[in-house]
Amino acid sequence: MSTTNKEIGPPVIELGAMGWLRKNLFSNWYNSSLTIFGLYLLYILIPPLVNWIFLDANFVGSTRDDCTSEGACWIFIQQNIKLIFYGLYPTEELWRINFVYLILFISGVYLLIPNLKHKGWVGAFLLIIFPIICVIMLSGGLGLEAVETRLWGGLFLTLVIAGVGIVLSLPIGVMLALGRRSKLPVVSILCTIFIEIWRGVPLITVLFMASNMFPLFMPEGVNFDKLIRALIGVMFFSAAYLAEVVRGGLQAMPKGQYEASQAVGLTYWRMMALVILPQSLKMVIPAIIGSFIAIFKDTTLVLVIGLFDFLGIIQFVGTNPDWLGFSHEGYVFAAAVFWVFCYAMSWYSQRLEKKLDTGR
Amino acid sequence: METERSKLGSFLFNRSVQGVFYQLITLGLVALGIYYIVTNTARNMLERGLASGFHFLGVESQFDIGMTLIEYSPTSTYFDSFIVGLLNTLLVAGIGILFATIIGFTVGIMRLSSNWLIAKIAEAYVEILRNIPLLLQIFFWYFAVLRALPKPKQSLEIYDSFFLNNRGLFIPDTVFGEGSSIIFYLLWLTIIISIGIFIWAKRRQNRTGERFPAFYVSTALILGTFFISLAATGFPVSFEYPELKGFNFKGGIKLIPELVALTFALAMYTASFIAEVVRGGIMAVSKGQTEAAKSVGLKQNLILRLIIIPQALRVIVPPLTNQYLNLTKNSSLAAAIAYPDLVLVFAGTALMQTGQAIEIIGMVMGVYLFLSLFTSLIMNLFNRFMKVDGER
After folding, report:
1. Nearest by Cα to B230 from B184, B190, B161
2. Does B137 map to a domain?
3. Crossing angle of helices B257-284 and B78-111, rounded to 10°
4. Chain A residues with beta carbon closer than 8 angstroms to that of B332
5. What is the ipTM of this complex?
6. 0.95 surpassed by pTM
């Protein structure tokens, strides 16, 4: 018995830092070589990147001549920050955008803090009154000077397009999903055709259609703003994708829920609004937020029809003769901003998923 | 009186009558909307002097395209330009799908690695790439990387045969000399024989339970015959290498920078989604399957090949084709960096010249719609084929 024990030897330590290293990085020759390869990869990628972005970068100055060291020239971003964030919006009117941001920020924080009262009211305010405030504050009216949408741009425009797309496409998507699952064949076929057509074509063709074909559809004299045309395109496009997500949730509902609500005598709309949708939307929240992230990223495409969104304005600023040759800085900055927004959304969705998990 | 009213009531509140009523209303509204749009469009087109119809397709296009896979010149018709754009789209989608699959599967498997560092690197790749808009990535590779490359004289080179500079990527071209056709015939023959070997091996295994190394035998057969025939015919296949002549490269195959940037960005971006699909698919195979396979004494590589991969593939393939479709649709972003794809050539230049917005955008949308519906048809067939008996 004792000889067998000797042959096996003591167990390998799996505790502590050394144990962790041995278990996760150097368990055998194959794993060790992979680890070394990984370290090498990090070595050739990370130090130059860190040097370029932080250590060798230029932060202070006002012209391109101040960018003396090897690294990134963040002065380029600094000097154009107003354009990048607000586009050509008149400087003296910028407080209007900031005011809207402030309302959004305060109500957003209120909604995120757990265990506060009246969250429903704040949510209703955000969905019903806030959009009206936005329209008046941003485009003018009620004594405020009108600002044409062609002056809108930068991150502000990106947020407007994404925000409108997200807020309007969800109800349309829910209606389309209900329509597609309807027992009335005409409704179901029409909704299916609508959804499949929008889902089958790339957004860029939708935007081309919005800018070239919409004017033909309208009666004489009616001329939509370019931004509104793009918004309509983005809205229908994302509504079709959301419809499929919502339909997934509707299909996943157990049949008993439908039967039980019919048994207590609820009409179709009450059954949907009170029983089915609250549960099925909750089930597909991660997928819905995934669609929102996709919409947010897709807003960059509006630059092909000549709107200067965040990416468009960064492209535009890079062609300024005073700042030629700083496209790297522009793209890295844009990528960082987009990444923060998208990652925050996906992080929030994961958190929400855990919180709403009723353990079914 | 009483009975008449209740009759009317039961008619009005009858479920199926209500259904028909609602459907008629919906149909009426949709028809009204379409009628409104059509009349407006007809009047607007009349006012602008636009003739509807597809006659313009036969007219000379009078513009040139930077990259064409078929014969094309400004004297060709608009229909030719449509075909050129379509082929360019399919080309970029094809190459993109190939690379996205390779990178995606590698990263997806890396994320499941027991090696902590490798798994984290793969995770970082996925989280970074999929949270940055594709258009930004395309711009980055095109304007910040490829446009900033050195001139042809200072090209980056690999083994004197691949050259990368600001004019594009130059790769060797294969030239087939005399007698090379026999090699192809032999190649086809060995491939057919290999398929036969696979079928035979499968039947024999079903009958006797013995395994035959069909994969190794057929690989050896195909490669062996290929090299022997190559040697026997005196190597009729050669490579034409790109060479620096004057200010630019001659010979070989030139891939324009737009194509390189677009393919690269599409492949890297889509790979981050494919990696998640692959990871999900492998994780969907329950642990009991691996344990059961181990307990009947299968070796590790056989467990992977016979138990895990076939089951994981059933989960992976449908979302994977969805990603392929997304990549194809996303290739339309080519328009933003002036790669002559379907959207840029046809919905851009041709539309600008002819003004036939409805016909042209209809055709372009039709192409993508056809690809989508065709793919989902294939997927439905695949799902039916892969369905295990007794599964829901």
Report:
1. B184
2. yes
3. 40
4. 202, 204-205
5. 0.86
6. no
